[in-house]
Amino acid sequence: MNVIEINQLTKYYGKHRGIENVSFSVEKGEIFGFIGPNGAGKSTTIRALLSLIYPTSGTATIFGKDCIKYGKEIRKDIGYLPSEVFYYENMKVIEVLKYSASFYDDVDMSRIQTLSQTMDLDLNKRIDDLSYGNKKKVGIVQGLLHEPKLIILDEPTGGLDPLMQQKFFDLIRIENEKGATVLFSSHILTEVQKLCRRVAIIKDGSIVKVENLQDMRQHNYKKFTIEFENVVDPAAFGFEGITSLTQEETTLHFLYKGDINKVINRLQGKVLRNMLVEEPTLEEIFMHYYQKEN
Predict the structure, then answer these.
(1) What is the topology classification, in CATH, of domain 219-291?
(2) Taking the chain (294 residues) in consecutive chunks of 10 residues, what is each chunk's mean pLDDT?
(3) Going by DSSP bridges, is the β-strand pair 31-35/181-186 parallel, antiparallel, or unpaired?
(4) At what angle are helices 93-101 and 132-144 packed, to 10 degrees?
(5) Which of 197, 205, 137 is nearest to 171 (CA)?
(6) Where are the domains of the chain?
(7) CATH second-level architecture of 2-214?
(8) What region holds the ABC transporter domain (predicted)?
(9) DSSP assignment of the chain, as one string?
């Protein structure tokens, strides 16, 4: 069963493109990554899902219900952490969280205490005394206090130090193990790599690829670093399947997708000092998708 279904979702702001023909689905119980640089269309897609903005065309459903028609009903079971969080500054943290809890039925108030302790959040501080990172912690607790069935995270770790980031990742894993589905949007690829099994890559408002992370890293691409005795012409390795080709004096670096024997054949007659073949990082694969075509 798919918790999220997006089909040809498009949003234009006048003549300016927000997103165009975005399609992907998120299965029940998975942590799904949504990756792309700032401005690629991640937040626009999420806001359309939450019916905070209305799409120009296309459809989106959550829990099998249309996001626009049943938006108010659907949002009761969603925990949302936006990329930027804003609050009434004259309120205390606990007052903000109790106010948020009042919008839901049967919230266990002890959960606020537990989540706040996990994130090292002082409930008695005033919002205007909090750093950006601590305001983000308020957003995390606010998004999870009602034990949502679907958690939508838009650039969730901004402002958190590495220790808090790890606590946050552990918290999301626990919620996922309890049954929550997670849509994790980020431009920080190492975060997605830690949590997600599948990812959708968005570029210039359109989906480039939806793929299993393990397949992307282990089956599709190999990363080559070849050091030669003498300088070689990189054009000799300019055949189909090779991307991200760079040269540093006598060393070539590239990603390759295809029959590895084709690379080996190109090495005939050349003297090598060293050769390293390894799995590329998600970052390197991601940059491959963003290369401009010649």
Answers:
(1) Alpha-Beta Plaits (3.30.70)
(2) 95 92 96 89 94 94 95 94 85 94 90 95 94 94 96 91 93 96 88 88 90 72 91 87 89 89 90 90 68 43
(3) parallel
(4) 20
(5) 137
(6) 2-214, 219-291
(7) 3-Layer(aba) Sandwich (3.40)
(8) 4-229
(9) -EEEEEEEEEEEETTEEEEEEEEEEEETT-EEEEE--TTSSHHHHHHHHTTSS--SEEEEEETTEETTTTHHHHHTTEEEE-SS----TTSBHHHHHHHHHTTSSS--HHHHHHHHHHTT--TTSBGGG--HHHHHHHHHHHHHTT--SEEEEESTTTT--HHHHHHHHHHHHHHHHTT-EEEEEES-HHHHHHH-SEEEEEETTEEEEEEEHHIIIIII-EEEEEEESS---GGGG-STTEEEEEEETTEEEEEE-S-HHHHHHHTTT--EEEEEEEPPPHHHHHHHHTPPP-
The structure's pTM equals: 0.80
Per the listing, tokens 């998004």 go with 143
104-112 contacts, C-beta under 8 A, 24 or more apart: 104/76, 104/145, 104/146, 105/76, 107/145, 107/146, 108/147, 111/144, 111/145, 111/147, 112/141, 112/145
